[in-house]
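Before relying on records like the one below, remember that each one covers exactly one chain. Contacts with other chains, cofactors or solvent are not represented anywhere in the record.
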Amino acid sequence: MAALVAVAINGQAPTAREWRAARMVPTSKTLTARFGSWNEACIAAGLSINGPNVRNDREVCVVENCETIAFKGGQCCRKHMRRMKIYGNAKTESMSRRPNKATLERDIQGRKLCNICKQWLVENDFNRSTRAADNLQTACRICQTSKRYGLTRIHIEDFLVAQNGSCAICCEPLVRWSIDHDHTCCGSQPKSTCGTCTRGLLCRPCNQGIGNLRDDVRILQNAIIYLTRGSGDR
């Protein structure tokens, strides 16, 4: 704001065109975005504006910690007025798209509908999303993960039943699982797989373990020999 005052002539604010011509910093675009308009930026700097219908007694936004001039005689700045219009709450931090009914809809048990498997699930089955109105992904965690591997929720549930809810290697109960597939078919880090090369569900340590050993049976067999020999053996 000191730069605005320095450029002012006899307390009169420069025009945005004059500011751009002088190549001043911050730019007029930055000041306009910050205060809602060029005139509001000049008023905030304590300068008088030439032109009709200009008021120098504009109040700042009522939202806490926001020092932007209120927009068009209202109580909030342009940014918080937009949040109020979309969310009904000017203090909402998210600036995501307008929430639709399905995003916020819950059944009588408070469960959320997955937009892929169409099942009502508890909110803990959904990953977090700061862009969503309810801060949750629209698809459940299982559907999001299985979609990448060409599978559906039914396939995942079949794997869990066949493995008794345990890791296919260490047989420990699966809390957070990883989908293991044959890397010779679709590569080690594909964006998606064919779905036919899926081998099973593993816990994260086991999945990372065979990955670090490059899914090589010979290396795994050597590792077994190494672990089973005595500490004194050479």
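Residues 2-87 form one domain.
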